[in-house]
Design brief:
The chain is 77% helix and 0% strand. The chain has 283 residues and is mainly alpha-helical. The chain has one domain. The two termini are 30 Å apart.
């Protein structure tokens, strides 16, 4: 099997593992989004640390460069996860996932603002197509119905934060991607600790422990490592298109396991976002 094929397989497996995150959050009825957000970053940091200790070709780079920006980077990461989990709780899995991955729109915006990257006409067209898809998903007609506003705002903010974090990651020149992800999760932990005092469960079961391990190790740390390894083997353009499976897999899993059928607005909006991302990626 050639190197590029291995890289594609690693990214596809990572996308599938990421796809299980909404299912864990939806399945859990005991811990809630506050606790799950804390344990996800804490356990993920532990998992990546163990990987760095075991792996021969990776070494943890110390926390001594661009400290203020790295702290901001980790803090935003923690609240992205919290926003995403709230979106999953109050919206359909399809809506929550599509709102998070509207990050593709904000990546272009923040790349222009922070990295001073030029925006081509093709990029603008892709951005407009993706933004129309986002507006269709966040239907103005249903936005203010019941708890939709909480989930929609949380999902939108998570998507914006995701785009900002992705762009900021490109400004760290002294850290490799695995070390950066470790510090990102570890720094997020103290920002998440206050959440434990909001809704900490009075009992803690083996099922809770199992969900936390799945969420932090198998559905966060492991897929991140696979993504980094995969992108080392294939072009960023090709990887950027394949990573769109991060949108498809959770929606399909939500359909199969929770019988959540995507609405027509989800389908149309999702297709437009994917088309817009492909246009931007290929430009």
């Amino acid at each position: 099997m050639d190197k590029k094929t291995v890289g594609l397989i690693e990214i596809i497996i990572a996308s599938l593992l990421f796809g299980f995150i909404p299912l864990v959050v939806r399945y859990d009825t005991h811990l809630g989004p506050y606790n799950l957000a804390f344990f996800r970053v804490a356990v993920a940091a532990l998992g990546i640390f163990l990987f760095l200790k075991i792996a021969k070709n990776h070494a943890l780079q110390p926390f001594k460069y661009q400290k203020a920006k790295l702290i901001l980077f980790g803090a935003i990461h923690g609240f992205i996860i919290l926003g995403y989990f709230f979106a999953i709780k109050y919206l359909s899995i399809a809506s929550a996932v599509l709102l998070l991955y509207s990050a593709a729109i904000w990546i272009v915006v923040f790349s222009w603002l922070i990295l001073k990257e030029k925006i081509t006409l093709r990029t603008i067209i892709g951005l407009i197509v993706a933004f129309v898809g986002l507006v269709i998903i966040v239907s103005p007609k249903e936005f203010f119905v019941n708890e939709n506003i909480i989930g929609s705002v949380a999902g939108l903010l998570a998507g914006i934060g995701f785009g900002l974090v992705y762009v900021l990651s490109k400004t760290f020149k002294k850290y490799d991607k695995v070390s950066l992800t470790f510090w990102q999760n570890l720094i997020a932990v103290p920002f998440m600790i206050p959440l434990l005092f909001i809704d900490f469960p009075t009992t803690f079961t083996l099922t809770d422990a199992g969900l936390i391990i799945l969420l932090g190790i198998f559905f966060t740390a492991l897929p991140f490592i696979l993504v980094f390894r995969g992108f080392e083997k294939i072009s960023a353009q090709k990887g950027g298109v394949v990573i769109l499976l991060d949108i498809i897999f959770p929606i399909l899993l939500g359909l199969l396991i929770f019988k959540e059928v995507p609405t027509l607005s989800n389908i149309i909006g999702g297709i437009l976002i994917v088309i817009g991302v492909v246009i931007v990626t290929r430009s």
